[in-house]
Write a structure and sequence with these properties.
It contains two helices and no strands. The protein has about 90 residues and is mainly α. The chain is rod-shaped. About 0% of the residues are buried. The mean pLDDT is about 90.
Length: about 90
């Protein structure tokens, strides 16, 4: 289409405004599609990483709670070991 417009300019064709309008329309559609696909891809990537971040946050919270329980169990074990007489048999 660009070649047709260039040829029409050289030949001083009366259909030049129509060709230029068609070229502008096609160029606008191409830009819209390109930007739309790019935006779609960026939004999907952002959404994917946000979901991944939410799952990582949940995993971190579960890990912190498990660590707290293990620390409490360790403290209880040391307290039991210190309070139990050494002579007592198991």
């Amino acid at each position: 289409l660009q070649a047709k417009v260039a040829d029409a300019k050289k030949a001083n064709d009366p259909n030049l405004p129509t060709l230029e309008a068609d070229l502008a329309k096609v160029t606008g559609q191409r830009e819209t599609m390109f930007k739309g696909e790019t935006l779609r891809g960026l939004l999907l990537t952002t959404y994917g990483f946000s979901v991944l971040g939410e799952k990582a946050e949940l995993a971190a919270l579960v890990s912190f709670f498990a660590a707290a329980i293990l620390i409490l169990a360790s403290i209880a074990g040391f307290a039991h070991a210190l309070s139990t007489p050494k002579e007592k048999k198991i």
